[in-house]
Amino acid sequence: MLSWLIVIGTCLLIVLIFFIFNIFDTASNRKKLPPFYSGWIPWLGCALEFGKNPLRFINLMGHKLGPVYTLKVAGERMTFLTDAKDFHNFFQSTDVDFQKAVQSSVQKIASVTEEAFFKNHTKIHDTVKGRLSFHKLPPFCETLHSKFKEHLVGIKNQITIKNGCEFEAELNDLVRSTMYKSIMDNLFGDGVLPTHDEAAFKEFEKNFLIFDEQFEYAARLPKIFLREWTKSKNWLLQMFTRVTKQCMQTIPADVESRSLLQTLIAVIDDDFSPNWSMMMLWASLANAIPITFWTLCMIYQHQRVLEKVQSEVRQVLKENEKCDESTLALMPYTRQCILEAIRLRSPGIFTRRVIKEFRVKGYNIPVGDLLMVSPFWAHRNSQQFPDPEEFKPERWENIEKNSFPESFIAFGGGRYQCPGRWFALLEMHIYVSLFVSLFDCKLLNGVPDLCELHLVGTQQPVQKCPVVLSLAK
Ligand code: HEM
């Protein structure tokens, strides 16, 4: 009898202890965490699904788990916010940090040590922001225009030689080769990078494309999987080591006449100038050039839009030999087309590191999580962008010239928002208007599909985009 009482008493005691601890835990200790992706062997299942099609997977999880959810991918906890009402907090909160989110990627991709990163990053960001600020752009109008024109007239001459008939090309290659050279000359100094010699340019282009294509994987995978990428990165670093050395000796005293590259290396006081310059080159080419390609695809694919752009640009550019701010202001519809293409091809994600517990929608996001927002999916929210998959440039009517609506987050936000955004819009505006004014263009297979394998940056096309070009009538 006594032994029975001891057994029952012990059981009651255990239940009581559980009860007390559970109450205690719920009341004061347990934090409310966001839903976590779970499935068959959760982390493995998640990594596999994520790897297969990351862009679709993050959207699917949002529908399944709600506006705040967490994935664990390759050992990293990523918490996604999908409600536009939380974006302001994401960009402005002091509980999350841009630099701590990107530092290790910059180290893996560009070999900038942790110490050098924190010493120079803010200084570099502010320098680029100052040099490419809205008010500093007018001188770029003329130089970009003349470089783009030089390269596009080169294409026009090839068509004329062929009797004014037709010229077959791959649109993405064509945009890239004509824009790369112009942007490199404008930002890094005329001929400072290999833009004047065709063979040297081709070698540069080959290495840059490999560097760009595997950029995102390089931030995550060990070097052993990235042999080709590492070779191209080293090629680019060697090029920049030569270039920055020469550049250092020729920096003009007059600050205003310095190129962006000269401005940049003048503020870096350690040995990492080639590494930062390589990152700067990547940032200036990796997003704006694909968007220019998509803009042209979408314009030429939509007859009604095309006619509107054609009548705008052909009229304005016929009457104005030179291109300045006032000329661009006369082509607002072309700018609307560019904004619409950016909306539809925005970066998959950007990120911040949680440095102090971050509260959102009643959840507590722990320190160390990467907090993620997807502009690509945010721009497909039908409440803010009705018929989100449609290419409708008219939705950007009445947008102020030097600001964006809050729902448009392609360039990030907060302290470290893209410092090249105004330059990007300017170069695309000039290029697209010149292109449409010079050429008629038939897309032989329509607009290519977008590649869903990358989350960093704007999307690339999956298929080639063969076109037939002819001189504008
Ligand atoms: C359509 C074109 C472009 C898009 C969509 C884009 C988007 C972005 C985004 C989303 C970020 C990160 C911001 C954040 O997390 O809040 C960024 C950073 C940056 N962008 Fe852009 N960008 C574009 C063009 C350019 C151009 C043309 C340049 C330079 C000429 C440039 C220079 C930079 C630099 C230097 C950073 C890094 C800032 C830092 O580390 O502090 N971008 N860009």
TrEMBL record:
Q: Cite the InterPro entries for this sequence.
A: CYP450_sterol_14alpha_dmase (IPR050529), Cyt_P450 (IPR001128), Cyt_P450_CYP7A1-type (IPR024204), Cyt_P450_E_grp-IV (IPR002403), Cyt_P450_sf (IPR036396)
Q: Pfam families of this UniProt entry?
A: p450
Give yes or no: UniProt keyword Membrane: yes
GO terms classed as biological process: bile acid biosynthetic process; cholesterol homeostasis
Query: Residues that bind substrate, according to the entry?
Result: 108, 287
What's the cofactor?
Answer: heme
Tell me where it resides.
Answer: Endoplasmic reticulum membrane
Query: What sections of the protein cross the membrane?
Result: 6-24
- Write out the pathway annotation from the protein's UniProt entry: Lipid metabolism; bile acid biosynthesis
List, alphabetically, the GO terms of the cellular component aspect: endoplasmic reticulum membrane
Keyword terms, alphabetized = Endoplasmic reticulum, Heme, Iron, Lipid metabolism, Membrane, Metal-binding, Oxidoreductase, Steroid metabolism, Transmembrane, Transmembrane helix
Q: Which annotated residues bind heme?
A: 418
Give the GO molecular function terms: heme binding; iron ion binding; oxidoreductase activity, acting on paired donors, with incorporation or reduction of molecular oxygen; steroid hydroxylase activity
Family, as annotated: Belongs to the cytochrome P450 family.
* Protein name per Swiss-Prot or TrEMBL: 24-hydroxycholesterol 7-alpha-hydroxylase-like isoform X1
- Write down the species: Biomphalaria glabrata
